Amino acid sequence: MTILVTGATGYIGKRLIPLLLSEGHTVVCAVRDRLRADKSYADEPNVFVIEVDFLKPETLDNIPKEIDVAYYLIHSMSNSSKDFKSLEEQCAINFKNRIENTNTKQVIYLSGITNEKELSKHLSSRKQVEQTLKSKVYALTTFKAGIIVGSGSSSFEIIRDLVEKLPVMIAPKWLNTKTQPLAVRDVLTFLHRALADERLYNQSYDVFGPEIITYKQMLLQFAEVRGLKRHILTVPVMTPKLSSYWLYFVTSTSYKLATSLVESMGVQIIGKQSNVNELLNVKPLKYKDAVALAFEKIEQNGIVSSWKDSMVSSGRLRNNLHKYINVPKFGCFKDHKELPIKDTSKTLNKIWSIGGTTGWYYGNFLWRLRGYIDKLFGGIGLRRGRTSPTDLDAGDALDFWRVIFADKQQKKLLLYAEMRLPGEAWLEFKIEKNKLKQTATFRPRGLWGRLYWYSVLPFHGYIFNGMINKLVSVD
After folding, report:
1. Which pTM was predicted?
2. How confident is the model at residue 300 (pLDDT cuts 50, 70, 90)?
3. Of 166, 204, 365, 450, which sits most exposed with the smallest number of CB within 10 A?
């Protein structure tokens, strides 16, 4: 079959595509920016990458007519736009209009559990999208999941931050809200086993784990899996705004996502029973087993996708990386350094391992200080780290940078700054003629931008000199 996957660079999409390919299907990946598509797809004969922006109907003509099944995996949890709901609905309308003019027989939509009368704006939007996607031309299959537990998921990484950093927590009362977490492995099983299954046509199912537990229990059970002893005191005095700041400063989440999560976590997420587990032969994992499985993937460096790599994890960049790939030459300040290389392979490996737990090779305390300052001014700081300790692809988050271009064959890595700045900044590493060329470029915005550059110039001299020396050394 030929299958369309929307949200192909997202957390679920990146994990679903290999499952579909393993079954011999042809997969059409719809992405807003071709640069963000997985590089391995270029060598895969059954993968076709198309650029589609579902808010721009004219781009939907790129979707081929010969589609059998389409996955609708478009969500925007971090979007804080006032017209968020209407934008989500417009995406669904544009998708539906195009798909009805293809050969598609089934659309599979991943939504959220929406059984409560009072819903967050995001859950309310997802409920509306389901209504919008219903059609007389194709069959709609909807899976409504609660909290998804897996390496790299937003809920998993936020809980991990809280548990591993705070032995004692004074937490908001919404930690007593009940939910039914579901392992990402089970989500993927539901999605790919539903493929062309006519028993599921025009049906909607809640999918959830076997336990009803509170967020507080999730934290404590997570701690048990990690062999940690944690104490949690819930208090009623934390307003939603204070709760959002609590998550923002303690975890790696952005403030926008923290606000959305706090709103959603106040809503009980309990699924309705159905026969879908029996129909698809799925036995969902318990929460502690899902956490243990996630850490197996982490230890094996097997994280396929992470919410941190979403473009909205910083709120600074939009989806099109092409806009930032050409580093400006005029009206900019530059710090350019070159050194001969003793071992090209070692230097390349060091460049590709930069940031995250490895650090920046020199003056790491200054990088951390810059991260703290960024957090204080509403930025993302250094807490996103990186998904893989050794691999980099365009679109990946790298501390408070975004990878714009990464090609080991061309020996070039280009990063764009997502920290709070009075301007724009790029950092480029390139090996040419057995020399490492390291260039920091800053395009200031007004007088404050120029003052900023000169104020940090002494630190740049210290950091960038030390960094390039470490990168070319053979130790």
Report:
1. 0.76
2. low
3. 365
The total number of residues written for the chain in this structure: 475
Count Cβ neighbours within 10 Å for each residue of 197-212 and write b for 16 or more, e otherwise. eeebeebbbbbbbebe
- pLDDT given for residue 109 in this prediction: 97
- Third-level CATH fold of 314-472: Alpha-D-Glucose-1,6-Bisphosphate; Chain A, domain 4 (3.30.530)
Pairing status of strand 203-207 against strand 139-145? parallel
Q: How many other CB atoms are found less than 10 A from the CB of residue 441? A: 20
Give CATH superfamily name and number for 2-309. NAD(P)-binding Rossmann-like Domain (3.40.50.720)
**Those residues with Cβ within 8 angstroms of residue 21's Cβ, 6 or more apart along the chain or in another chain:** 27, 44, 46, 47
Cα gap 189→13, rounded to integer Å: 13
**Residue of 77, 129, 395, 26 whose CA lies nearest to 262:** 77
2-6 and 26-31 as β-strands: parallel, antiparallel, unpaired? parallel
Q: Report the C-alpha gap between 226 and 222 in whole angstroms.
A: 6
Q: pLDDT at position 225, please?
A: 92
Model confidence at 138, pLDDT cuts 50, 70, 90, reads very high
Query: CA triplet 302, 306, 312: central angle to 5 degrees?
Result: 165
CB within 8 Å of 319: residues ≥ 6 apart: 32, 33, 36, 53, 311
Cα separation, 345 vs 229, in Å, equals 43
Contact 422, 445 (CB under 8 A): yes
Mean pLDDT of the chain: 86
3-state helix, strand, coil in the chain (%, to 5): 40, 20, 40
Nearest C-alpha neighbor of 443 from the set 336, 337, 333, 335: 333
8 A C-beta contact, residue 231 and residue 171: no
Query: Domain ranges in the chain?
Result: 2-309, 314-472
